[in-house]
Design a protein that fits this description.
The chain has helices spanning about 15-20, 55-65, 90-95, 100, 125-140, 150-160, 205-210, 250-255, 285-300; strands at about 5, 5-10, 25, 40-45, 70-75, 95, 110, 145, 165-180, 195-200, 215-220, 225-230, 235-240. Helix 1 crosses helix 2 (about 55-65). The protein starts with a strand and ends with a helix. It has nine helices and 13 strands. It is α/β, with parallel strands linked by helices and about 300 residues long. The strands form two sheets. Strands 2, 4, 5, 6, 7, 8, 9, 10, 11, 12 and 13 form an eleven-stranded mixed β-sheet that branches. Strands 1-3 form a two-stranded parallel ribbon.
Length: about 300
């Protein structure tokens, strides 16, 4: 079934055509609000730190397009880092620097993971610029979603929460238990709900509980703490990848299998645990609802 959205995107962004092939008709002009633009569009910036920018753009556009809220998405890049896997033309055409958008009125910020999790935070070459953005977001954005490595980085910078190396990669789909189902962030989401994880490091429950400003919202005995909130949801830290497309973990598995000795089959992912069969995208509905709830209850000015 074709889904028409009220998501405003940069014209000719490749994600638009990719998602149209999936049956999602992305409208990207100023008159495309499904509610007649009676409410002001929410302006959401995506700071994309993932190596393959176009894939990540598509993942988040897919999620945001599932919401009935009217949203404008701005793509944001670091000025102190040059991507290796995305063309300079694409970055120049579709992305803005922090300096270009910091004063334009941003309601929400999403900061993605990055392939630097095994480095010390301060050894990351763009750490200074990134933490400048972290600080700005506390004062200027209604709510920031920190994803995977960014969640660990944000918790470390704002609250001193350390990360720890795992003996083996946490890889697969793990059920997460919601600690307070009355929170609007989890409206319409089953308890427990599935979440993809793909990481070599973790934060620990005891460290989070020791910080009075933090609240654990979801966790798992298998994958640990998955969602943490601070300042009544002004900061939400997600250690997994709810944005992942159906085949992302499969692609990671096939990329790494045979190259390293620690590559296991993703847990709870392939049909019958057979990598020759299709993955089971069990997290899609909860991911759509999670992001819709974030837009609806944490960004909208009630």
């Amino acid at each position: 079934m074709k889904r028409v959205t009220s998501l405003l995107l940069p014209s000719n962004l490749p994600a638009i055509e990719r998602l149209r092939k999936e049956g999602i008709d992305i409208q990207h002009d100023e008159h495309a609000c499904s509610d007649g633009c009676a409410r002001r569009r929410l302006r959401v910036a995506l700071l994309n730190l993932m190596p393959f920018k176009e894939e990540t753009e598509t993942d988040f556009v897919r999620l945001l397009s599932a919401s009935s809220m009217s949203v404008e998405l701005l793509l944001m890049r670091l000025s102190t880092h040059t991507p290796k896997h995305t063309s300079a033309e694409h970055m120049q055409k579709f992305y803005h620097t922090f300096e270009e958008i910091k004063s334009t009125g941003i309601d929400g910020l999403i900061i993605t993971g990055a392939p630097v999790e095994q480095l010390n935070f301060r050894d990351v070459t763009y750490w200074d610029e990134l933490t400048t953005i972290f600080s700005w977001a506390q004062d200027s954005v209604r709510s920031t979603l920190y994803i995977c490595w960014a969640a660990q980085a944000g918790l470390f910078f704002h609250y001193g929460i350390p990360k720890y190396a795992l003996p083996k990669k946490k890889f697969g789909i793990f059920p997460q238990t919601i600690t307070d189902t009355s929170m609007p962030l989890f409206e319409g989401i089953d308890n427990p709900f599935p979440m993809p994880h793909s990481r070599h490091t973790e934060i620990r429950r005891e460290d989070v509980l020791a910080e009075s400003g933090l609240q654990i919202l979801a966790e798992s005995p298998l994958s640990g703490v998955s969602i943490v909130s601070a300042r009544d949801g002004a900061e939400i830290f997600v250690t997994g990848h709810m944005e992942y497309a159906t085949h992302t973990l499969a692609n990671e598995y096939r990329r790494d299998y045979g190259k390293r000795s620690d590559v296991d089959l993703p847990v709870n992912y392939f049909t019958d645990d057979d990598p020759e069969k299709e993955p089971l995208p069990t997290w899609r509905n909860s991911a759509d609802k999670f992001f819709d709830n974030w837009l609806r209850y944490y960004l909208r000015n009630n």
